[in-house]
Design brief:
Structural class: alpha/beta
Largest sheet: 4 strands, mixed
Helix content: 10-25%
CATH architecture: Roll
CATH topology: 2,3-Dihydroxybiphenyl 1,2-Dioxygenase, domain 1
Strand content: 35-45%
Distance between the termini: 35 Å
Number of strands: 8
CATH superfamily: 2,3-Dihydroxybiphenyl 1,2-Dioxygenase, domain 1
Number of helices: 3
Order of helices and strands: EHEEEHEHEEE
Length: about 140
């Protein structure tokens, strides 16, 4: 059996990302290991109570992994939201929106009813997209 254990976001600043995911979203640290000989930090966070899956907060690579212009281009794309999307699910989108807003999360839109549920979105400090959905009963075959 193959299973997903971690997903990854590029981040501009690991400490800033760590503060966002732990303080503002209320997640926990799963791993925070610095390897000085490689000038590398393995940083993983995840939702409390959902063991077995984490989000790796990986710094945008700099030389020698990427040349300077590639590193800068990737950082710019991430800041524009082109780094991908993390899809989160909640039992109560409005309550989660209210709680996270009170913690300082800036949402792109209020919880909005969609054919599949109630949905909203926000971005992390690096620009990564996060969608928060309360799934309601629906049929994918519905037209």
């Amino acid at each position: 059996m193959i299973r997903i254990v971690n997903a990854q976001f590029w981040v501009h600043d690991q400490d800033e990302a760590l503060a966002f995911y732990t303080r503002m979203l209320g997640w926990e640290v799963r791993a925070d290991v610095t390897m000085p000989e490689w000038a590398f930090r393995w940083l993983v966070v995840g939702p409390v109570g959902q063991e077995g899956v984490g989000l790796v907060l990986m710094p945008v690579p700099k030389p020698p992994m990427f040349d300077g212009s590639t590193s800068e281009a990737l950082a710019e794309l991430v800041a524009k939201g082109a780094g991908g999307t993390l899809f989160l699910e909640t039992d109560d989108c409005q309550a989660a929106y209210d709680e996270l807003s009170a913690r300082g999360v800036a949402f792109n839109d209020p919880p909005t009813r969609q054919p599949y549920g109630i949905d909203t979105s926000f971005r992390d400090p690096s620009g990564n997209n996060v969608r928060l959905t309360q799934v309601l009963e629906f049929s994918p075959d519905r037209h």
